[in-house]
Specification:
β5, α10 and β6 form a beta-alpha-beta unit. α4 packs across α9 and α9 packs across α10. By secondary structure, the chain is of the alpha/beta class. The protein has 13 helices and six strands.
Amino acid sequence: MLEELAMQVCLIQQTLTPSLAHPCHLLLGGDHGIEREGVSVSPREVTWQQMINFTRGGGGVNMFCRQHGFKLRIVDVGVDYDLSAVPDIIHCKIARGTRNFLYEPAMTEEEFDKAIEVGASLADDCIAEGCKVLCIGEMGIGNTSPSSIWMSLFCDIPLDECIGAGAGLDTPGIRHKCEVLRQAIDHSPLTIDHSAAQKSAYANNGQFILRYFGGFEMIAAIGAMLRAAEQHLIILVDGFIMTACALAACRLYPEAQRYMVFGHCGDESGHRRMLDAMGAKPLLSLGMRLGEGTGALCAFPILDSAVRMINEMNNFDHAGITRYF
């Protein structure tokens, strides 16, 4: 696996002496209108409270960024709270949360485009500093809901097999979540009274699905991934939500997956199914469901080992050792 990983990194950077210089981590925050339907055990104020906690260094993401030398950027893309006076938060707020996709599209086309641009611009800032590895995490109560819908629609997997406990729903809560998300799909242009041709056009329009059900922080993550791939960066992919964003990015541009290293298979139901659907092999399986990009950060030492192997380890010919196998 280390050899395969080293080969991937060499191909990404087009060199036999790859570098993991200036690794950066984007932590993107946003709220979701669908949270109002009781699809999460946590209330939406947890989003802004955690964003402030991150600025104080108290999150899991802070610890792992410190451990592995990542520069952390905390970004408000769509949190339903005024964080403008909080130091150390980058303010890119598009709106105070998305609309409720049970009744209408989560965002407009203009908002979608702006979220993509925000993510690309954030990646550009990292690239300007010499970044070679971009890791992305999220903070947004309710964001397993759009992730589950994207997974179901893009991978053609029954919705109930894509829905898990999120932050800790019990069995009745999961059942309610499934019912709400099923209603949302049924009320969308994917299934309401249209001609077969119109329904097919919506179903095959990846951008429409992302805009109708997505979150601002998730669309920004897609924009960052696409720009990172365009500029030949290694993209470290985290758990269920970020894998859904990676899936979406690859739906728009399949070549983007060549730049992705899948760090972790989380504990959210359906994550393994989504990874399998993408043909992705995660480096770790730690049973985590923390989000924030923490699983991907934990996988960084394995990526580092692969790069050190290709850069520092002699083969038998160079070392003058007789081949004995």
